[in-house]
Write a structure and sequence with these properties.
Elements (H helix, E strand, L loop, with lengths): L1 H16 L2 H9 L13 E7 L7 H8 L2 H4 L2 E7 L4 H10 L5 E4 H9 L4 E6 L7 E5 L11 H6 L5 E4 L5 H12 L8 E4 L4 H9 L5 E4 L3 H6 L3 E6 L15 E6 L3 H22 L5 H11 L8 H10 L10 H13 L12 H4 L12 E9 L2 E9 L2 E9 L4 E8 L4 E5 L8 E5 L2 H9 L4 E7 L7 E4 L3
Parallel strand pairs: 1-2, 6-7, 6-8
Antiparallel strand pairs: 3-10, 4-10, 5-8, 5-9, 11-12, 11-18, 12-13, 13-16, 14-15, 14-17, 17-18
Helix pairs in contact: 1-5, 3-11, 3-12, 6-14, 12-13
Amino acid sequence: MSKIVDRWRIVRLGLLIVGTAFLAALIAGSGLGAREKGAAPDVVKGAFFRGSFPNLPEAVALDQGFFAKHNISYQPIEIAGGGAQQGAALAGGSIDFAPQEVRAMIVADAHGGNFKMACGAFRAPIYDLVMRNSWPITNAKEPYQTVMKELKGAKIGISSLGSGTDFNISLLLRKSGLPEDWVTRVAVGADPLAVLAAMKAGQIDGYMAFEPASQLLMANGGKDVLAESKGVGPPVLQRYVTNGYTSLASNFEKRGDVYKRFCQGIADAITFIENPANANAVVAAFRGQTNGGSAIPDDIVKKAIANYHATYHPIITPARYSLQVKMLYEFGFLKQSEKAPPFATVVNQATQPVGYFVQRFTSTFNGRARGTALITLQGKKVCWNLAVKGGDKPTQASITTGKARKVVLALGKGAYQSKGCTTASARLVASIDDTPGNFYVALTSKKFPKSLALGRLAV
């Protein structure tokens, strides 16, 4: 286990922490701060993966004018390799933001890295282990530990050493009780077309993929043998916050307002991506703003978009942050003697689009009445729109939780209201947003005072 920890730390921390003081001095002397009305747009430079979905929100924000709406001039800077190389560029001063994983920033800051995240990008697993069809897998539906055992001797592609793909392989091996050398990791970058070429050439047998590489490989002689993006794998990964937009902590004092507006543009883009009606426009944005995306067929890009439904999210919550800390201690990436930085050290709450981003949930009623519910959360505001058919006339609607269906929020006061808005505690809103499946929209009536209809929330 010590070899796992040492290798990951050496690669990750060596790339991330170098150059921190240089960039801090550079930004401190820039004089950039809050913008006056009518001022020229603030330039923000961000690392991006060629033709890959970790940067899809930026592509959409550029294409749809969401950055311009918030007076941001965003400049994507391609950096070859993976997240580790992008982190090094961030520390070196050539970019403002790099998409970095929360768990990596926790470890980096625990060792004096001075990094801070402005807002989130993914809030759920994004990886799929795709192997060439000829690799013998008895049954991909078997438990993930069985699948991992059948990969002995395989050459598994990763974006780069120290990246999230690299970390994910280590985690799967560890949870399966297998040594690090069970597979051979080969760094092939993150460009989906380059990854496909590597698999066709026999350079790799499989790839720890993220979209659209997952769909591209499966359409060209690959098979998904461990679909983390669909809930397969260790339970610890199912609420795993992946990437967020990371800068140096020292940047926020001078550029906090700029970064807040950047994150609002990201929130607008994520809202746009999550609307299925915008699929064609999202494909066009992907093609227009990411070099290399034009060679990937439309149907593959659309499948990739659908696979990541409800995966993007611009807000990192304390609850999910705590899960990352727990995981790092559990697997030895943080020693018990090392103190993990608190949430406020790694995540800048002032720039997160809390109160700006609108999260939408739907619910389908079952019971003596049928229909649907739309619930939206924005800050502490909770709004609802209920469409009910059949059964008795509703007299009350509420949000409940638990087997006992405990009422946690009444949807309206007095007489039944089919639509409206109310306020809730920040803690309750965060809990609903974080685990919507634990909550239900419940209807009651005079004839059925205990339950007229019930529907579980879903994104």
